[in-house]
Amino acid sequence: MDGFPILGTPDTGDTAWMLASAALVLLMTPGLAFFYGGMVRRKGVLNMIMMSVSAMGVVTVLWVLFGYSLAFGNDKWGFVGDPTQYWGLKGLIGGNSLVSHLAAGTTAAVKIPLAGTIPQLVFVAFQLMFAIITVALISGAVADRLKFGGWLLFAGLWATFVYFPVAHWVFAFDGITGEHGGWIANHLKAIDFAGGTAVHINSGTAGLVLAIILGKRAGWPTTPMRPHNLPFVMLGAGLLWFGWYGFNAGSALTSDGVAATTFVTTTVATAAAMLFWLLTEKIRDGHATSLGAASGIVAGLVAITPSCSSVNVLGALAIGAGAGVVCALAVGLKFKLGFDDALDVVGVHLVGGLFGTLMVGLVAAPEAPAAVKGLFYGGGFDQLWRQAVGAFAVLAYSAIGTAILALIVKYTIGLRLDKEDEATGIDEAEHAETAYEFA
């Protein structure tokens, strides 16, 4: 695509739905802050919340300057968008975005740049919310021990050099043809409807690498580090589930049958994942916990994200049930392998994202909107290998990029909190505040 996208009059119904969806996805980041904040110890809850909230600031500024252009500008070298095309959202906002005005007494339509049937500015806002929460997700892996300044620098670098290019691979949207332009979606033809690769595999891999480079928390794993506020965790899970409808159903970019299908499959898979996580806990530990219910909800949401447009209800049930079991078992890997993933970002987002992405190749149903046949519907291994290549390409790129950026921050301004400050508590050390006053 050369130049600016086609000018036209947006569909008002689609525009209203997408504005609401963008707001729903933004709500997921405060929801994540509560989810993560409740899972850490009392002395780290404010820092945990601040890591999510600060991502809203850092990513937004970068996105409107050059991030949107890197992700959705004209393709350069098959890797990234043209960083100058939409610099500062030029051509999309202000005088240049309105090429005709309603004259007094006329019914002439105002024409603006479109992405499909919606104003491109709405698409800018919607995709911004994806970028924000992807960065925020990483923070759960490194709770209680990452300098706040180091986090801000890493977040900005990671968004620029890892997320924006990967978003181009998966989500790049041609405003003229209405087709995806990224190599994973367009050339490989892997299906990732709402971000199983770009969001969850990407952030989960980054969390793993950053946690390894940062090192373990003092006392882990022998010192108990239980969640300090489980009602916060449940509230966060509820907000995430609510906001995820904007994430998945909103990715249809229209208020149509595709949005309806993804809304239902998202609900079904999430419910199944919660139940099967609890069942796994009951069999393994003898108890079904509220933390398990909240974690199962998130695992189901993660797993159905790439596949919500390509499966029927039975496929959604299979993905949700499988994610509940697989992710519940995967969170224990950190103890066996010795990496301190504080809040199970790897077990839920990396493993759940991989599981959901690969399951498309097995249970994609021809009657679903994506109209693709998985292995179990007579499609052979064709879609499965495409899913695998897309998933592991993102994993490899994220791992390498995260390692380079984390080491840059480590050897410049530093990553790790001092031992004394970690013992005192990161809230007091980094923010001079405490969450609770007991005096």
UniProtKB/TrEMBL annotation:
Residues 16-436 form the Ammonium transporter AmtB-like domain. Belongs to the ammonia transporter channel (TC 1.A.11.2) family. GO terms for molecular function: ammonium channel activity. InterPro entries: Ammonium/urea_transptr, Ammonium_transpt, Ammonium_transpt_CS, NH4_transpt_AmtB-like_dom. This is Ammonium transporter. It is a multi-pass membrane protein. Involved in the uptake of ammonium/ammonia (NH(4)(+)/NH(3)). It comes from Mycolicibacterium mucogenicum DSM 44124. Keywords: Ammonia transport, Cell membrane, Membrane, Transmembrane, Transmembrane helix, Transport. It comes from the Bacteria. GO terms for cellular component: plasma membrane.
